[in-house]
Amino acid sequence: MYADVIIDVPFHDVDSMDVVWHGHYLKYFEIARCALLDQFQYNYVDMKQSGYAWPVIESYVRYAHGIVFQQQIRVRASLKEWENRLKIEYQIFDAQSGKRLTKGFSSQVAVDMLSREMCFQSPKVLMDRLNAWPAFQAAQGE
């Protein structure tokens, strides 16, 4: 249960040493996370329409190898937890060699938009979307 995206590192993402500034790694994670959410039709617009916001409450990045200007990278977002929160793990690879460059994760919780209260369980709408996703169904059958 994952999504991959390919990104060509643009000049405006690098510092004076042509290495990606550390904060942009989270942006790359977000791009892959959106691709993953789209796969089970529960992206940020869908979340809002269902009455829930899903703020990021935790994120982590392990910078193993620098990413440089014009490098083509593959970012993978994998769904790891969903019952009480959305925990998504990320890996960034060099698109040509396959070498892993970075890894990390993020956690999001549902917040009821009317009451502004955090939910201690993921809302039913998330489970409905996941259960309709063929990749989720296949993984549950393993």
TrEMBL record:
**What protein name applies here?**
Acyl-CoA thioester hydrolase
Q: Per its UniProt entry, which superkingdom is the organism in? A: Bacteria
Has keyword Nucleotide-binding?
no
- What SUPFAM superfamilies does the entry give? Thioesterase/thiol ester dehydrase-isomerase
Keyword check for Hydrolase: yes
Q: What are the recorded GO MF terms, alphabetically?
A: hydrolase activity
Q: Which InterPro entries match?
A: HotDog_dom_sf
Which keywords does this Swiss-Prot/TrEMBL entry list?
Hydrolase
Pfam families attached here?
Answer: 4HBT_2
